[in-house]
Amino acid sequence: MFGQDDKRVYMDASMNLYYPKGANQLFDIPEDLKEVVSEHWAQFPPQHPLITHVFGILFFVLWVINFFGNGLVIYIFLKTKTLRTPTNMFVVNLALSDAIMMFCMGPPVTFNAFVQRYWMYGAFACKVYACVGAICGTASLLTMVVIGYDRYNVIVKGFSGVKITAGKAFIMLVAIWGYSIVVSAMPFFGWGGYMAEGGLMTCGYDYLSQDWNKKSYMWFAFVFNFLFPLALNGYFYTKIVKAVVMHEAALKAQAKKMNVDSLRSNADDGESAEVRIAKVAITNVMLWVTIWSPYAFVNMIAVFGNQLVVTPLVSQIPAFIAKSASCLNPVVYAISHPKYREALSREVPCLGIREEKKCAPAGSDTKGQESVQTKA
Q: Which residue segment(s) compose the domain that 156 sits in?
């Protein structure tokens, strides 16, 4: 591809990039691919091949981490009988969604990055690639909302909360996937669109087109696939943090009245289960905001703001960061689960994880505390 020809893009021995005078990023793009390539990218010079190669390597690393991380979550939850509960179906679904996303996106981009400087699979494959990413991304976000609701239901509502049975969990998962598929498939039926992203190596939402059809779809996706789920998750975890802080304060007040240091039998073991729950809750929301917000706001800036600030890297980097969520979710939603860690240390001892099951003193009532720890 990169021969030393004054009519083609090439690198010299010092990795300097050369391209024909006046060439832009759309230089030498096939005609049949221009259907999904915005003219917006024509104002930028060709990307340096090393940038493409770096993203190819990063996608490969994400895919490997995703494969083992989510694979372990699915394996452990399905193999361990005590973990096969209705509410844990949501964690497995999150791992499944993330695994599908990177399985479909990691290898094609990695291979493409070292073969061609632009999307090499054709316009229709670009739309399918973007649609799969939209489906899995939406399903993951909505699953995290349901996980937040489940934890809110148990920790805040307690016995007055709605009990989630296997049937209810299954219906909720069907609704999540049904909504994600229908909404993400709309560009194939005339509402919205998909396009090649800034580096021309991946595909996503068409947020650069100026017609109202595309803009209205982006507005819908921003509100109902990002803002509304974020607001729900923020509400659930805010209530969880408030509940555990109030519970912790009540225990300390009662201990003070009884003139003891703590009412907990395991007070010397470090921070309480309530504090751990609060930390996990805050981490969940902060990760959501940190990972998904850059991609969402770059999209909306391009739709309703100044498109000149949306350079190839400004487009490509947030898209990559959003996909990194598929590797972080297993850590946040599974590793924080005590019983999962116990099963992992037992089923996969080669990882070196040592999780000891703590036994409560005879006669002590730990049922309520155990239920809280299990949800942490």
A: 49-346
d(CA 192, CA 183): 10
Beta carbons of 104 and 125 less than 8 angstroms apart: no
What residue ranges in the chain does DSSP mark as E strands?
10-11, 17-18, 194-196, 203-205
Between 149 and 5, the higher pLDDT residue:
149
Q: Is residue 36 part of a domain?
A: no
pTM of the model: 0.84
Alpha-carbon gap, residue 230 to 333, rounded angstroms: 16
In the structure, what pLDDT confidence band is assigned to residue 2 with cuts at 50, 70 and 90? very low
Closest CA to 127 of 36, 33, 218, 32: 36
Other CB atoms closer than 10 Å to residue 91's CB: what's the count?
24
Considering the domain boundaries, does residue 121 fall inside one?
A: yes
- Residue 228, domain CATH: 1.20.1070.10
Q: Does a structural domain hold residue 184?
A: yes
SS3 of residue 161 by DSSP: coil
Round to whole Å and give the CA distance between 207 and 100. 24
Residues 326, 73: Cα–Cα separation, whole Å: 12
With beta carbons less than 8 A apart as the criterion, state whether 249 and 113 touch: no
Q: What are the angstrom distances between the C-alpha of 238 and each of 72, 151, 163, 247, 370? A: 30, 11, 21, 14, 21
pLDDT tens track for 260-303: 666 555 554 545 555 666 677 777 778 888 888 999 999 999 88
Bridge partners of residue 195, in order along the sequence: 204
Compute φ and ψ for 44, nearest 5 degrees. Answer: -115, 145
